[in-house]
Recover the amino acids of this structure.
């Protein structure tokens, strides 16, 4: 009995709070002052330099051959497992998780840079 | 994490090499995504870097790259998944991980290589196995 009373009173007390939250929420969406994922994607130059760093630091890769257009298997002489490893290294660098279908397509630096640049959550 | 270890509910039954190859890559990705957890559990921050561990996993996979039978690949994948589960659920200890996956690469394996270089092919295959 008391619990029923309590819950009904609480229900009434709680309504204004959720109202206040939605107000704050809409305010936040308008201002975006507290969003941790900014609405600007990463700067293209920064993406290019970070992706190239990841590829260059791969032990089997000759750093002097790495350009923004290099193809992993054809130009750098890596095999498919190395390709997957590079994609995983890129995932770690940019704190992403790339789904399998997309990851299979990433075969060159150019595609990797494109993908990261277009990804809204790249860190 | 989305693709951390899901226990294999359906035993892998690859029909052809393509499917087996896909499973291998899936396993490799799962292993790489578990690496931060592993480094956390066994406190490997001073001993190894994630990229080194990734390369180690890749070279372990590459050791069996010559296999042509999809069923053998399935069996190897089952063993690998079991090993990875053991590591992630802390069934091993730090010295196991360091000895098998960190030091092994530079310390022991390389030494063997240098010693064997001068020998003949016959002796190399003799040391490594029974069938040649």
């Amino acid at each position: 009995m008391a619990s029923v009373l309590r819950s009904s009173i609480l229900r009434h007390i709680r309504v204004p709070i959720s109202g206040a939250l939605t107000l704050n929420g809409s305010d936040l969406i308008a201002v975006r002052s507290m969003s941790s994922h900014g609405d600007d994607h990463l700067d293209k130059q920064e993406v290019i330099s970070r992706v190239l760093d990841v590829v260059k630091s791969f032990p089997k890769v000759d750093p002097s051959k790495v350009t923004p257009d290099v193809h992993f298997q054809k130009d750098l002489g890596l095999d498919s497992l190395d390709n997957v490893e590079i994609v995983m290294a890129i995932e770690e660098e940019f704190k992403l998780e790339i789904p399998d279908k997309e990851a299979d397509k990433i075969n060159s630096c150019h595609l990797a840079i494109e993908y990261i640049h277009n990804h809204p959550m790249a860190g | 994490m989305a693709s951390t270890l899901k226990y294999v509910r359906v035993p892998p039954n690859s029909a052809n090499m393509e499917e087996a190859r896909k499973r291998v890559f899936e396993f490799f990705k799962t292993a790489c995504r578990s690496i931060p957890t592993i480094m956390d559990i066994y406190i490997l921050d001073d001993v190894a870097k994630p990229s080194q561990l990734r390369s180690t996993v890749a070279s372990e996979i590459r050791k069996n790259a010559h296999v042509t039978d999809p069923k053998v690949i399935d069996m190897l994948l089952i063993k690998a998944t079991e090993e990875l589960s053991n590591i992630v659920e802390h069934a091993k200890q730090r010295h196991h991980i360091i000895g098998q996956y960190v030091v092994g690469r530079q310390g022991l394996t390389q030494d063997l290589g240098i010693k064997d270089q001068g020998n003949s092919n016959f002796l190399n295959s003799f040391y490594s196995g029974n069938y040649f």
